[in-house]
Amino acid sequence: MNYRTVVSLGEKNVDYLLMKYGDLLVIPHRTGIKRAHVSGLFFGYSQSIRFIFIAFVFYIAGIFVKYYGADKERLFTGVYVIFVGAIGSGVSISQLPSMSKAKAAARQVFGIIEEPTRIDPKQPGQTNIPDGKIELKSLLFRYPSRNTNVLNSLNLTIHPNQSVAIVGHSGSGKSTIASLLLRFYDPTLGQLLVDEVPLKDYSMPYLREKISVVMQEPLLFNESIKNNILFGNATANDQRIREVAVMANALGFIQQNDQDLSSKSVQKNLITAFANALNKPDTTVSQFKQ
């Protein structure tokens, strides 16, 4: 449950949830305080014992200087070198677990980066979608990392200018269909056609330019609303932005809520509407999880 979902429940419900959440934090808070005291005790012991040991070594060195005539400068240099070397070795050894974790994490990251892609994002192909009829015929799909099918013999036809809502529980394949339309994956079996042409035959840049995806949580950059909107079409001018404001039915909203434009929720709604209008997509895929 995210912040927007909680706020949508109403002020009274939000206060109730905060109170319940505060009650649930009482026991972990007390446990955390006890652990902090124990950790502080051990930390203080570890620090003090180190300095006690250093004082003891210098005490022994002082005895050698006083009673055995040892050279003070050479003795101090030797003790200092031993201390610095021991501290450096201790720090290095203490970092070994972190280095092992970093290696494992880097192995996974570079494994993903270096894995050859099965779908070329620059693949050339057909660059003409006259109508935009989408057909899924006996579609079967499973993710490479899973053994079970997400989609089983799915048949679906979406006609041009038709709005279709796909509803289902979590894991039923709603987002998977969107991913297949964008060719993030290819079907395991079956056909995915656009205007009777297999999706694989289309140019990848052209195909993705014609489809706009509205995610549940739009990403915001630390920029103005205008600059965020321009990510949809960097060449758009102010006149074009005003035109799409009218197209998205957002111009009146902006003018009436000029003082609230810094609000995250307002910005997300505006950016989603503007970016889609600027792009002029032939197909819009919206994903809502709640």
UniProtKB/TrEMBL annotation:
This is ABC transporter domain-containing protein. It comes from Strombidinopsis acuminata. It is found in: Membrane. The keyword Transmembrane helix applies. Gene3D superfamilies: ABC transporter type 1, transmembrane domain, P-loop containing nucleotide triphosphate hydrolases. Keywords: Membrane, Transmembrane, Transmembrane helix. The chain crosses the membrane at residues 51-69, 75-93. It is a multi-pass membrane protein. InterPro entries: ABC1_TM_sf (IPR036640), ABC_transporter-like_ATP-bd (IPR003439), P-loop_NTPase (IPR027417), Type_1_exporter (IPR039421). GO terms for cellular component: membrane. The keyword Repeat does not apply. Residues 151-262 form the ABC transporter domain. Pfam families: ABC_tran. PANTHER family: ATP-BINDING CASSETTE SUB-FAMILY B (PTHR24221), MITOCHONDRIAL POTASSIUM CHANNEL ATP-BINDING SUBUNIT (PTHR24221:SF503). One of its GO terms (molecular function) is ATP binding.
